[in-house]
Recover the amino acids of this structure.
């Protein structure tokens, strides 16, 4: 396989779709970072073919249309993100790799820490994932089985996800439990009699109520503290060392927000090689936490990090774990249905959300506008992990050639969105939940129709 970036309209439309879902900004002027986005978009369109060769560096450089320095910079970032393996020597070259669950968990913690997000969102996200597994099990008529399994360390949710058989849901469980572990939350119980009875009876309300009881309040632990554990876990050399150093730099930023050393200064002070320091800086730049500039230091701390880098990291994990469009769509649909309920609950408790949808965007039937509405509804939920995961699932679903939302369905979705916004603004959680589920059923039926057609 070799890179061949087409300039036809279809490719441009696909790029706009990807940028809309991820929230990638427009051209930044940094050709290396723009090339990273293009390569990842290209691989998503190809189904992220892990193990395939992209070619030697000169071939990739030609395909990207970059000079040698910018191309090498892009390769450094892609290698640090776990998207490429660089093999040197005879028979070497650039090979497609996939980020691991550890990479995704680390990137989520990094994003939360940079943006000073409360750690409460981790437990809320974990509870949403538990509910997703329960609902999928009830829909399939599964009766809970006990006994040790490969997913035992993930508790009852891991075992139930294994029985559900949706790789996207299993991946979400793994991410939620690893986030909880990093923040020192208690492990999920391996079994619970009350919950199992509710699943056997197909009683979603009782199952959800029991999960609410099992959820552990989280008040004192923050993602920033969890980064210390990430530093130790990712110690060593190579790419993992770069991730550990990036975590260290984020923690230091909290105490020295005005200070960003030159790469050589960091290397001398902390004892990392120049290569590792460069990779760590590029990771932070890809997050939007560091902004390039001219001069001796070459970069400064930026403001809040963008979720785009995390979304683009999770999407290839979904391909690598074997999740197909229908798997991703099912998981995305359930998680997205929770956003309006959470948004309405936050309005009811603390007043109107500043993330409300305004203007004429809500009346548009254009696909990109509908996706932007979904992004805003996810943001209004107040839980960035819910937003990131749902958008990554959507990216892995909608990048499949031929994916779309039927025109008739679009109008129905627009009508429901109007009513959803009214329910959110009124703080009406019950109505918001009901309408979100109705919209989800429309989108699922459209997806099923496409598959049969």
């Amino acid at each position: 396989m070799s890179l061949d970036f087409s300039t036809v309209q279809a490719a441009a439309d696909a790029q706009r779709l990807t940028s809309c879902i991820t929230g990638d900004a427009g051209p930044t002027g940094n050709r290396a970072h723009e090339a990273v986005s293009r390569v990842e978009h290209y691989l998503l369109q190809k189904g992220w073919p892990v193990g395939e060769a992209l070619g030697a560096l000169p071939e990739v450089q030609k395909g990207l249309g970059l000079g040698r320095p910018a191309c090498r910079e892009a390769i450094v970032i892609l290698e640090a993100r776990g998207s490429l393996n660089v093999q040197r020597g005879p028979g070497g070259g650039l090979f497609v790799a996939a980020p691991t669950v550890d990479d995704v968990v680390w990137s989520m913690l990094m994003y939360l820490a940079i943006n000073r997000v409360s750690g409460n969102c981790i437990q809320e996200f974990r509870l949403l994932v538990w509910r997703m597994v329960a609902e999928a099990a009830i829909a399939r008529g599964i009766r809970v089985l006990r006994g040790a399994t490969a997913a035992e360390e993930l508790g009852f949710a891991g075992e139930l996800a294994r029985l559900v058989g949706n790789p996207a849901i299993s991946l979400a469980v793994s991410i939620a439990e690893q986030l909880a572990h990093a923040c020192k939350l208690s492990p999920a119980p391996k079994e619970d009699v009350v919950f199992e009875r509710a699943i056997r009876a197909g009683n979603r309300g009782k199952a959800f109520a029991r999960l609410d009881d099992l959820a552990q309040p989280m008040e004192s632990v923050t993602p920033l503290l969890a980064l210390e554990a990430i530093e130790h876990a990712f110690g060593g050399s190579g790419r993992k060392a770069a991730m550990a150093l990036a975590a260290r730099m984020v923690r230091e930023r909290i105490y020295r927000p005005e200070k960003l050393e030159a790469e050589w200064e960091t290397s001398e002070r902390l004892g990392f090689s120049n290569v590792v320091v460069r990779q760590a800086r590029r990771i932070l730049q890809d997050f939007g936490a560091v902004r390039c500039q001219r001069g001796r230091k070459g970069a400064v701390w930026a403001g809040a990090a963008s979720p785009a880098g995390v979304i683009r990291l999770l999407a290839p994990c979904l391909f690598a774990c074997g999740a197909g469009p229908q798997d991703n769509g099912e998981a995305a649909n359930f998680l997205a249905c929770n956003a309006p309920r959470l948004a309405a609950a936050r309005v009811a408790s603390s007043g109107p959300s500043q993330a409300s949808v305004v203007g004429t965007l809500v009346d548009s039937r254009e696909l990109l506008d509908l996706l932007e509405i979904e992004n805003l509804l996810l943001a209004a939920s107040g839980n960035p992990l819910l937003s990131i995961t749902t958008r990554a699932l959507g990216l892995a679903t909608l990048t499949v050639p031929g994916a779309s939302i039927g025109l008739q369905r679009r109008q129905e979705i627009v009508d429901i969105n109007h009513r959803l916004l009214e329910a959110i603004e009124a703080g009406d959680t019950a109505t918001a939940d009901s309408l979100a589920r109705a919209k989800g059923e429309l989108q699922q039926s459209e997806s099923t129709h496409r598959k049969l057609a």
Q: What stands out?
A: The two ends are 30 Å apart (CA to CA). The mean pLDDT is 81. The first helix runs from residue 9 to 22.
